[in-house]
Every structure is written in structure tokens, then in C-alpha cells.
Design goal:
The chain is built from 10 helices and 13 strands. The chain is α/β, with parallel strands linked by helices. Helix 6 links the parallel strand 9 (about 155-160) and strand 10 (about 175-180). The radius of gyration is 24 Å and the shape is globular. Bound molecules: Deoxyfructosylglutamine.
Length: about 290
């Protein structure tokens, strides 16, 4: 009696175990289980947590309602959609902690006009590049800073951890650098006169110029460090999916549409346009 009752249960257990083994599920096989449910290795399957910036308009910023938007944000959402993920949650961070937060698994990605450099590749992996431009010194009309040479003896703001900081340390050696956690704080200091100028990304500089009547004093090419999406090291399925999405967004004109929306009037770079729209003229070095 006991035996005949037990038998179906044993059979079911054996069958379940066999199915689990075949599907790669079950206790010790959980890594392949999560690979099936969570191919990109996201913190929460089906959702991408992104570390970004609240004040890098028009690349990445929080609007009046607190929603993240901008060129980089919209491009990332489009690429995530192509990778099959529609839930993307952006959080504002200080730039200086952003790559570490991606590397240590607090976020799935970093999206904030982050230039790809060998040094940063020691901390994170990057998608392919999706934007290349200039670094700009902006100042007030009365500061007397009319070009990079005039920065000698002046107080120049940089956001900590940026390429601007590294460039200024190396090349603006006679300026006094003042490090800020973010652009808004630095621009307040420019407007109040506590620093003479601030050094930031070209399009963000343009936005602050328009907002506060500031002027550009110097544009430094940064085409050797195009912006990419930062991902924790070794998440190759995720990075590959982002790269495929980026290539598709460039080829079907989505990248161009977003560029025109967020950077109106800026010269159109060729290397990210659909192949049919690229001429034989070589683009600025990547
Ligand atoms: O290197 C450039 C790139 O060519 C493009 O112009 C977008 O900005 C950059 O990636 C540089 N961005 C800075 C950096 O990566 C600052 C980023 C920020 O303030 N959000 O450090």
C-alpha cells in the first residue's frame, strides 16, 4: 500500500528532475537558468538601470517633471528597445562616481556623453561610439578670457572625473583648476564670478550660453574619445546587443533624427549616418 502510493510521486520527482536537467534549471544549474531568463545579466531581468546625469542638457538631463531625457537618453532607450527591453530606469549621479557604480553592479549601464578612453576601459566596457565632438571653455562677457591662452592665472571650473579635468591638468597648467561635482554648480560659480570660466562638453556649453548669456572661449577637439554606453566588464551579451541596436539606429536614420532634434544647427557628423548618406570624405578621426 505504502509502496504503490509512493511510486507515482517518485516517478513525478524523477520526471521533474529530468526536465529540469534538460532545461538547465534546478539548484546547482542556476547560472544557465538565469542566462535563459536574463540573457543580458541585468540586475532585474527585463529592466535596465542606468546611471546618468541630471544636468548635462542636451545630452542627458532631468526635465521639469524629473523625467530623464536628451540625446543620449533617447538614443539609449531606442537601442534598449531594439535589444528587447522597454523598461529603462535612469538615475542621476555625480559624474565622478558614475563608472564605479556601473562597474560594481549598482547599475546596468552608464549613459552620459561618456568618452571612451583606454583609462576608463580599465574600469568598464563600452559600446561602440555614438557621438564625437568638442570640449568647450565658457565664460562671461566680462571675464577677459577670450581664448585658451588667456586662462593663465584664471580660475577654471571642471567637473571631477571628466576628460575636461584631465585635459586641463595636462594643458591648462597655468590656470587654477576648481573642481565641481556637476555642471550646474560650476555654472553658478561662473555666474557669480567665483570662477572665471567652466570647461564642459560643447553642446552643454551651448545650452548654458543660451540660458545665461555666457560665451565660448575655446573649443578643444575630442574626436579620439567618442561617447559610448558604459557596461560592467564581461557582460558581452549585453554589450553586443547594444552595439547591434546602435548600428541599426544609425543605419535607419534614427540616430540622425535624434541628432537634429537635440543638436539643431550643429554640423552633422558623417560616421554615424546611414551608409548611403556617407560621402567619400573621411570623417574626423574616430
Ligand atoms: O569626448 C567627448 C565626445 O567626443 C563627445 O563630444 C561627447 O562628450 C565627450 O564624450 C566628453 N564628455 C566628458 C567626459 O567623457 C564629460 C561628460 C559629461 O560631462 N557628461 O568626461
Amino acid at each position: 500500500m505504502t509502496r504503490t502510493n509512493l511510486r507515482p510521486g517518485v516517478l513525478i520527482a524523477a520526471a521533474v528532475a529530468a526536465v529540469l536537467a534538460l532545461s538547465g534549471c534546478g539548484g546547482s544549474a542556476s547560472p544557465s537558468s538565469s542566462a535563459a531568463d536574463n540573457p543580458y545579466g541585468l540586475i532585474e531581468p527585463g529592466s535596465i538601470r542606468v546611471a546618468s546625469l541630471g544636468d548635462s542638457k542636451p545630452y542627458a538631463f532631468a526635465d521639469a517633471q524629473g523625467n530623464f531625457t536628451g540625446f543620449d537618453v533617447e538614443l539609449f532607450k531606442d537601442v534598449a528597445h531594439r535589444a528587447g527591453v522597454d523598461k529603462v530606469v535612469f538615475t542621476g549621479q555625480d559624474f565622478s562616481g558614475l563608472l564605479a557604480a556601473v562597474a560594481n553592479g549598482q547599475f546596468d549601464a552608464g549613459v552620459a556623453a561618456i568618452g571612451i578612453t583606454d583609462k576608463r576601459k580599465q574600469t568598464v566596457d563600452f559600446s561602440d561610439g555614438y557621438l564625437a565632438g568638442y570640449l568647450t571653455v565658457i565664460t562671461t562677457k566680462t571675464s577677459g578670457v577670450s581664448n585658451a591662452e588667456a586662462l593663465g592665472g584664471k580660475r577654471l571650473g571642471v567637473v571631477q572625473g571628466t576628460l575636461q579635468e584631465a585635459y586641463a591638468v595636462k594643458n591648462f597648467t597655468s590656470a587654477s583648476l576648481v573642481r565641481f561635482p556637476d555642471n550646474n554648480t560650476a555654472i553658478s560659480a561662473v555666474n557669480s564670478g567665483s570662477v572665471d570660466a567652466h570647461f564642459l562638453d560643447y553642446e552643454a556649453a551651448k545650452a548654458y550660453q543660451d540660458q545665461f548669456g555666457l560665451i565660448s572661449a575655446a573649443d578643444i577637439p575630442s574626436f579620439d574619445a567618442p561617447a559610448g554606453f558604459a557596461v560592467a566588464k564581461g557582460k558581452t551579451a549585453f554589450t553586443d546587443a547594444l552595439n547591434n541596436g546602435l548600428a541599426a539606429a544609425m543605419e535607419d536614420g534614427t540616430w540622425k533624427k535624434l541628432y537634429q532634434k537635440w543638436f539643431p544647427g550643429s554640423p552633422m557628423p558623417e560616421q554615424y549616418l546611414p551608409k548611403a548618406e556617407q560621402t567619400a570624405t573621411p570623417a574626423p578621426s574616430k
